[in-house]
Amino acid sequence: MPRRAEEFVIRRAADRDLPALLRLIRSLAEYERLLHRVVATEEQLGESLFGSHPIAEALLGLWQNQAVAYAVYFTTFSTFAAKPRLYLEDIFVEPSHRGKGFGGALLRHLCRIATARGCESLRWEVLTWNESALEFYRHCGAQVITEWVGCELAGDALQELARQHEATPDGQAELGD
After folding, report:
1. Which domain holds residue 27?
2. Considering the domain boundaries, does residue 57 fall inside one?
3. Does a structural domain hold residue 174?
4. How do residues 94-128 score in pLDDT, each as one tens digit?
């Protein structure tokens, strides 16, 4: 009997899911050839997702009660629309479970969350070489935006720019929290 997406269970991740979630994050990083960048621990992930001030949310996709997929997302803001936007940081289905509709089910679930929250869009990034992901997203109706280029300040460059003191017109340093 073929495995069907209807038998795939999606639920909010909980504290008890941290080992499975971190395992899936590492699997995504390995697939993306970025495993060397994973420094997250269960403790750090738990604080970010379930601590006193969560900054992101996670979904787990379960097949036969085993975590085989996940998504991590958070709310951003569109100044042009003056509305929230849902940003999808990660979506991943283990390679052995692809082609069964699980990725589409996760994406539809995220669209329902975005719609319920009044978001103007759901956005994410994908590596340019990941043709199978790009094809999947196009098939789902996503517009692949090529006019924008991702930028990042990290590591030493982030620290160096943060150390540079810039005073406001009244001479006071301005820091937000």
Report:
1. 5-150
2. yes
3. no
4. 999 999 999 999 999 999 999 999 999 999 999 99
- Residue carrying structure tokens 């620290």: 159
**31 noted as active-site residue:** no
The single residue of 70, 73, 87, 137 carrying the catalytic annotation is 137
Find the CATH number of the domain harbouring 57.
3.40.630.30
Going from the C-alpha of 36 to that of each of 29, 48, 94, 156, 176, the distances in angstroms are 8, 21, 19, 17, 31
Q: Whole-angstrom Cα distance, residue 47 to residue 85?
A: 23
Question: Is 168 inside any structural domain?
Answer: no
List pLDDT tens digits, range 13-56.
999 999 999 999 999 999 999 999 999 999 999 999 999 999 99
* Residue in the structure block whose two tokens are 């420094």: 39
- Domain tally, the chain: 1
